[in-house]
Design a protein that fits this description.
7-stranded mixed sheet; Ferredoxin-NADP_redctase_2; binds flavin-adenine dinucleotide; FAD/NAD(P)-binding domain; 2 domains; 17 strands
Length: about 325
């Protein structure tokens, strides 16, 4: 069984930031990533643009040059790719960590391909893999998707976009601009307050002029081959429909953390408990980094404000890491 000093679970921006710290210190480490490098960003909408300016997405002060102040998905993929390759970071791709167990002073990491031993483990597994389900009949029809990639398939089609957050608003506007017939079905009473301040007025105005239809205080009840039904405070409505984009958010795999024995807050936000100075959990030697730290509060941590986790962990490990 290969023996590491540090295993990092997740090859997103924050897992990469952790690997940079390990590489600089000459530690024997690897990232284990279940998909492609930066798998979450790879699966973002093709035309997405970050709300952060490029220097706020930089890791370890490695310059991120972008054509615009706010980079797009392609530029981010290029940047993180170059950070990994030019720093020779160690990473195993397309390998899923299934379990982490502490056995005396070491962790046994079981993947779908292998087993490894490690002195320390950093979990930076993000939140983008598990969509929040609507749990309504018809949700498993092929016309329903929880991810939006690009507008082209939806032109000249009747598309219901469910949700009113950044992802839903971006998708609705892009599909409408390319020629789709868009209806938004929104559980709340308005377009979300956290929608980017330069995008929200565009959405509100498209609804006001009737270009994009919107139903508020509305909950989907059934999806059928050719229609979608929802109830508002006043009535039950059924409209014709070809495609449904259920962009109601994503949730982290907290069961994975619970199975390892990580403690959680007692409120309904299900926040994992960790030391905010060191990022160490209740399990000695096991650390959390990145968006996973927020539990169900998936908007709390993002690249900008969580890249610092890598340094906090590495500085804590500096004094205690045993030579592998
Ligand atoms: C549309 C959109 C726009 C955004 N714009 C911005 C922005 O402008 N600025 C900003 O700071 N943030 C932005 N964010 C948020 C940001 O992308 C995330 O906060 C960031 O990706 C978090 O990085 P991470 O490394 O913690 O997690 P992730 O990037 O999600 O990486 C986690 C990785 O872990 C892997 N993984 C999960 N489970 C396992 C397992 N069991 N075994 C192996 N690998 C596993 C996943 O495949 C994934 O690659 C945006 C998010 C979205 C959806």
């Amino acid at each position: 069984m290969t023996n590491f000093q540090v295993i990092i679970i997740g090859g997103g921006p924050i897992g990469i930031a952790c690997a940079l710290e390990c590489e600089k210190r000459g530690w024997h480490y690897t990232i284990i990533e279940k998909g492609a490098l930066t798998n979450s960003i790879y699966n973002y909408p093709l035309n997405m643009r970050f709300f952060s300016t490029s220097e706020k997405l930089e890791l370890d002060n490695i310059p991120f040059i972008s054509n615009q102040p706010k980079p797009n998905r392609d530029e981010a993929l290029e940047y993180y790719r170059r950070v990994v390759t030019s720093n020779n970071l160690k990473i195993k791709l397309f390998e899923t960590v299934e379990a982490v167990e502490k056995n005396q002073n070491k962790f046994v990491i079981t993947t779908d391909k292998n087993q490894y031993l490690s002195e320390k483990v950093i979990i930076a597994s993000g939140f983008y893999d598990l969509p929040k389900m609507l749990n309504v009949p018809g949700e498993n029809l092929p016309k329903v998707s929880h991810y939006f990639t690009e507008a082209h398939p939806y032109i000249l089609q009747k598309v219901a976009v469910i949700g009113a957050s950044n992802s839903s608003v971006d998708a609705a506007l892009e599909i409408w601009r390319k020629g789709g017939d868009v209806t938004m079905i929104v559980r709340g009473e308005a377009i979300g307050e956290r929608v980017k301040y330069w995008v929200r007025p565009d959405m509100v105005n498209r609804i006001a002029e009737g270009s994009i239809k919107a139903y508020f205080n509305a909950e989907v009840t059934t999806i059928d081959e050719k229609s979608i039904s929802f109830k508002t405070t006043e009535e039950e409505i059924t409209i014709e429909n070809d495609f449904v984009l259920a962009l109601t958010g994503y949730r982290p795999n907290l069961e994975f953390l619970k199975n390892i024995g990580i403690e959680f807050s007692n409120d309904n936000l299900e926040k994992p408990v960790y030391n905010q100075d060191t990022m160490e959990t209740n399990i000695k030697g096991l650390y959390l980094a990145g968006v996973i730290c927020g539990g169900q509060e998936t908007h709390k941590w993002f690249i900008e404000n969580s890249r610092v986790h890598a340094k906090l962990i590495a500085e804590h490990l500096d004094g205690i890491l045993i030579e592998g």
